[in-house]
Specification:
The protein is mostly helical. 54% of the residues lie in helices and 0% in strands. Helix 1 packs antiparallel against helix 2.
C-alpha cells in the first residue's frame, strides 16, 4: 500500500503560510490543482481550516523543504515512516484444514445442542461452514445425521476457546431475560399469604400466653418460699 499524505488541504495551507514553495510544488505534493493552491493563498478557499505542520507529523523534513525552495523544479517527497503499521486483514470465513472438515458436522451438532442461543452466522464463523449445513443438522436432514456425534469444536481444533466464549457472550447479550415461569418461580395467592400470616400471629399469641403464665406462677411461688425460710 502506497504511503499517502495526511490531511492534504491542511498541509497545503501550512506550506503556503510558512514556506517559499511554488504553487506547483505544493499542488504536486498535496495532490491539489495549482489554481486551488492559489485560491488558498488568496484566502478564497479552505477558510476555517487550520494548517497542519508536515514536519511535526513526520511527513516532511526541513532539509526536503529547503531543497525544494532552492530548486523550483524539485518535487517534494514524503519522508519514510518510522513505524510500519501492518495492513488489517479482511475478515472472511474461517478456513478449515481438509483433514478436519469431516469433524465439522460433529462440532455443529455440539454447538446446536449446548449453545442454542448461537445464531447460524456465529456458528459459521466458528467452524467455517455454510448456513444450509447448519439448518440440515438442526432439522436432522443431514445425509450423515445417524452417525453424527456431538464433539467440542475447541477440542477438535476448529476454533479457540476465546473465540467460542466471545460468540457465546455476544449471543447472551442479545437474549431476553428469562421469565418467572422459566425460572420455576411462582407467586402465592393472596388467600394463602393471609392464611400464613394469621397462622404466624396465632403462634405468637400462644407463645406470649405461655410466657405470661410462667411469670405469674413464679411470682406466686416467691412469697411462699420466703415464709418457709422465716420459719427456720
Amino acid at each position: 500500500m502506497a504511503q499517502q499524505l495526511l490531511m492534504p488541504k491542511a498541509t497545503a495551507i501550512w506550506l503556503v503560510d510558512n514556506t517559499a514553495l511554488s504553487f506547483d510544488q505544493i499542488a504536486q505534493f498535496c495532490k491539489l490543482h495549482p489554481l486551488e493552491v492559489k485560491a488558498i493563498a488568496d484566502g478564497e478557499a479552505a477558510q476555517g481550516i487550520k494548517g497542519l505542520d508536515p514536519i511535526a507529523t513526520g511527513q516532511l523534513s526541513r532539509d526536503e523543504i529547503a531543497r525544494a525552495e532552492r530548486n523550483p523544479a524539485h518535487k517534494l517527497k514524503l519522508s519514510e515512516p518510522k513505524v510500519r503499521v501492518p495492513e488489517s486483514k479482511r475478515r472472511g470465513p474461517r478456513y478449515t484444514p481438509v483433514s478436519k472438515r469431516q469433524d465439522r458436522p460433529n462440532a455443529i451438532l455440539w454447538l446446536v445442542r449446548n449453545h442454542p442461543e448461537l445464531k447460524d452466522a456465529q456458528i459459521s464463523r466458528l467452524v467455517g461452514t455454510t448456513k444450509s449445513t447448519i439448518e440440515q443438522i438442526r432439522e436432522r436432514t443431514h445425509w450423515n445425521s445417524a452417525n453424527l456425534t456431538p464433539m467440542d469444536p475447541v477440542t477438535l481444533g476448529l476454533c479457540s476457546q476465546i473465540d467460542l466464549d466471545m460468540e457465546v457472550e455476544k449471543a447472551a447479550k442479545g437474549r431476553p431475560l428469562p421469565t418467572a415461569a422459566e425460572l420455576g418461580a411462582t407467586l402465592q395467592s393472596a388467600h394463602e399469604t393471609e392464611r400464613l400470616a394469621g397462622h404466624e400471629r396465632e403462634e405468637e399469641k400462644e407463645i406470649d400466653a405461655d410466657a405470661v403464665f410462667a411469670k405469674l406462677k413464679s411470682l406466686k411461688s416467691s412469697p411462699k418460699d420466703e415464709d418457709e425460710d422465716n420459719q427456720f
